[in-house]
């Protein structure tokens, strides 16, 4: 079957049969069983969900132009493109549907991620990153076409929003750069995993020059050959120490840590952020903080302008045209629901932003707070008692901005 020639709308399905894009409308036994169990209020086994998702992934395709038939759609990346606009259109019906959709979207994200992780046994995913980008693009297009096109929004508000969105995207681009991967061999794969889907990652000479400023720490740099053999065999004290990373086979510098999601060691590691599909460390922490600030500003200010516009009694209308009135109500509802969805996301992001500001103000990272909490050395789960690295509010922020947060040791080179 693989030797046959397919047209742009044909493909070979899971059973090895020749199929067509219109087959997506055919009966799905797994979907019928799920619907039947839902009507009977019975539990749905994971195997039945997996069968439905396999069928869905096999049938969701787009016409191919390479001569190999229809191309399979990656559900991990395509789901936000469908769910977000559809949910917000449903939310525009009325306040009750808006409330229901705002409850549904976080639950859907958690369900999709847990199901995807169970099916693929992977921890790293681009689902949340694509979700955030789709939400941003959708809201900005809606703001430009509806709010700026049909209301009294000033040019200054429009220009401010546009500049803020561009600034946030630039900060996000820098936040997705190398966070400070300690092992050079893993850095290349890490960046390809982060940018490979978009085709924008290139290991340029400029990037290589920046990497030379941070010396990679290998086991041979700090130990002789006998000690290295002892570590590999497990007979050396470092093999049992907290600073020795078995997976990366290196002695971790102070404040660094191993990310189980990315499977790399990060210098000055703070945490792994699923919304940017990257770790936050020495090299991208500042950009990450700027992106968070810009996101909260864009979301809150854009929601304020939107709600003020749609609630303005001067919203243009034509009482003698019922069809236009229905279209006006749809636009009003869509903008209203989108504004509340944006505010909900901004509130969640604002909590993370305040958390980051508190940590930076005491010269601490999320990783260090977590370790301190395990020994009961924290207050309110965010302040570290007797923090030797705390040099005062001003000095802590100065060190953060100037990349001087790291504590030097005999194993660290900068």
Description:
The structure is a single chain. With 414 residues, the protein is mostly helical. Helix content is 56%, strand content 7%. It has helices spanning 29-39, 46-59, 75-91, 95-120, 127-150, 155-175, 184-195, 205-212, 219-222, 225-233, 285-310, 322-361, 366-374, 393-401; strands at residues 10-12, 18-20, 61-62, 71-72, 244-245, 250-251, 257-259, 264-266, 271-273, 278-280, 378-379, 383-384. The strands form six sheets. Strands 1-2 form a two-stranded antiparallel ribbon. Strands 3-4 form a two-stranded antiparallel ribbon. The termini are far apart.
Compact summary:
This protein has helices at residues 29-39, 46-59, 75-91, 95-120, 127-150, 155-175, 184-195, 205-212, 219-222, 225-233, 285-310, 322-361, 366-374, 393-401, and strands spanning 10-12, 18-20, 61-62, 71-72, 244-245, 250-251, 257-259, 264-266, 271-273, 278-280, 378-379, 383-384. By secondary structure, it is mostly helical. The strands form six sheets. A two-stranded antiparallel sheet has the order 1-2. Strands 3-4 form a two-stranded antiparallel ribbon.
